[in-house]
Amino acid sequence: METMMMNFNHHRIKTNGIWMHVAEQGTSGPLVLLLHGFPELWYSWRHQMTYLAGRGYHVVAPDLRGYGDTDSPLSPSSYTIFHVVADLIGLLDHFGEQQAFVAGNDWGAVAAWHLALFRPDRVKGIICLSVPYVPRYPNIRPSESFNQAFGSGFYISQFQEAGRAEKAFARYDYVTVMKKFFLINKPDLLIAPPGMEIIDYLETPSFLPPWITEEELRIYADKFLESGFTGPLNHYRAMDLNWELLAPWQGSKITVPAKLIVGDKDIGFHSGGTKEYIEGNVLKNLVPNIEIVLLDGHHFIQQEKPQEVSAEILSFLRKVTVN
């Protein structure tokens, strides 16, 4: 593991008023940004970084704002999708690239979708894992919508209250918190029963699947022990502010080439309506140039199925480059 960690070049870049930590592999070729989600780090893309760098790409995976060795502003209002996209534009500028390929999982997918929405001139193509592009609903804030649809036990609803999730997470060691999130094996939406915190509701697996080791989980745990969870949770706490600020883009299309990769056992794939949504016309109308791939897997699909995801990313990069 130590040898693998040494294969990456680590440095911090000044962008959009913060210092952002990035891991880098490959020094030439087309730039590919890899964006993690919650509760992750750049390290979630370790397999794809080595795979793509070995095939001629310059691969950069940051810790997003609030995570790991990147700065963590105090206010939730500093975590809008506009802040995150501006951070990424700063990375492109730092590396002297007008355009890049961008892949993201979970919140990283949200960032990739909106980078393509706001600045299509800076994006060659995007690969989004687990989270499809979802349009802004004009008449209701996200927090209100989630409460109405899923109740107060829904994990995003619980994350809205400052300090609540942090206090609940603190009852467990950090490796256990990682296990509870990374190894979710139920396809249902994350909704705790009345009076229960979502972290208490999530099960702690008695054994690890073959795709992740205790040592790898500890890499995440040690970093969250240093940085805490408030920064990552602030992305959820900025969702209503995002809704307010995104009004001018109501109904806008994402026109860049896009690929969506979803695990068929992901959280809410069936019960949450994801399957119907990605198979219907709404997404295809909003993202006309989209390819959709279903894999046998769960939410953190790039770690669970590294070879399949890496191959899907590479095929997309080559297809867009040829076209």
From TrEMBL:
<feature type="domain" description="AB hydrolase-1">
    <location>
        <begin position="30"/>
        <end position="305"/>
    </location>
</feature>
<dbReference type="Pfam" id="PF00561">
    <property type="entry name" value="Abhydrolase_1"/>
</dbReference>
<keyword id="KW-0378">Hydrolase</keyword>
<comment type="function">
    <text>Epoxide hydrolase involved in the biosynthesis of cucurbitacin and mogroside tetracyclic triterpene natural products (e.g. siamenoside I and mogrosides IV, V and VI). Cucurbitacins have cytotoxic properties and exhibit deterrent taste as a defense barrier against herbivores. Mogrosides are nonsugar highly oxygenated compounds used as high-intensity zero-calorie sweeteners; they also possess pharmacological properties such as regulating immunity, lowering blood sugar and lipid levels, protecting the liver, and acting as antioxidants and antitumor agents.</text>
</comment>
<protein>
    <recommendedName>
        <fullName>soluble epoxide hydrolase</fullName>
        <ecNumber>3.3.2.10</ecNumber>
    </recommendedName>
</protein>
<dbReference type="InterPro" id="IPR029058">
    <property type="entry name" value="AB_hydrolase_fold"/>
</dbReference>
<dbReference type="InterPro" id="IPR000073">
    <property type="entry name" value="AB_hydrolase_1"/>
</dbReference>
<comment type="pathway">
    <text>Secondary metabolite biosynthesis; terpenoid biosynthesis.</text>
</comment>
<dbReference type="GO" id="GO:0004301">
    <property type="term" value="F:epoxide hydrolase activity"/>
</dbReference>
<comment type="similarity">
    <text>Belongs to the AB hydrolase superfamily. Epoxide hydrolase family.</text>
</comment>
<dbReference type="InterPro" id="IPR000639">
    <property type="entry name" value="Epox_hydrolase-like"/>
</dbReference>
